[in-house]
Amino acid sequence: MIRLGSAGVLTGALAVMLTLAAAQGETPAVPGAPPPGGASKVPTYWNDIQPLIAARCASCHRAGGIAPFALDSYAAAAPVAGLIAQVTQARIMPPWPPGPRTPRLKYDRSLTDAQIALLADWAATGAPQGTPPVTVPPAARPEKP
Ligand code: HEC
């Protein structure tokens, strides 16, 4: 009898929890967590592409850089997403000889297969921008007394 009683309490508690969860709708997304259900993630400029371009391309592809055009903003990179995918898949860019077929060298800018696939996926999904990071203005400097 005691056993049955506690099972009943547990079932009741579970039902209440489930009802609450259902009332809240979807479980709140945890920032940075993989999407529920393990659905494949669409790469976005702000999540995936901007850091990659900053690390591997923007030293040349920026205003005043040696490359003929900038890639260091969404407005600049999105229209040429398809071209970026092509030249990285062909390993034409980044134009730096160290890579999989050479000894390891310092300042190697070559891309991994995963990074090349990411750029290709981004182009194939229409170069989505995603959400820009929240920038907080710097705190005002306290006035000197
Ligand atoms: C060391 C400097 C340098 C780096 C790093 C670099 N590029 Fe370039 N890129 C160039 C130059 C210079 C050209 C122009 C080449 C030419 O006209 O022959 C160019 C051309 C291009 C083009 C145009 C190709 C075409 O056929 O018109 C694309 C697209 C490109 N780069 C993408 C990238 C991407 C993406 C990266 C990073 C993964 C990258 N580049 C990294 C210097 C660089």
Automatic annotation (TrEMBL):
Sorted alphabetically, the keyword list is: Heme, Iron, Metal-binding, Signal
Keyword Metal-binding in record: yes
Pro residues: compositionally biased ranges: 130-145
- Which residues belong to any copy of the Cytochrome c domain? 37-127
Gene Ontology MF terms in the entry: electron transfer activity; heme binding; metal ion binding
Q: Where is this region: Disordered?
A: 125-145
Signal sequence region: 1-21
In terms of superkingdom, the source organism counts as Bacteria
Q: Which residues form a coiled coil?
A: none
Supply the name of the protein.
Cytochrome c domain-containing protein
User: What's the source species for this entry?
Assistant: Deinococcus indicus
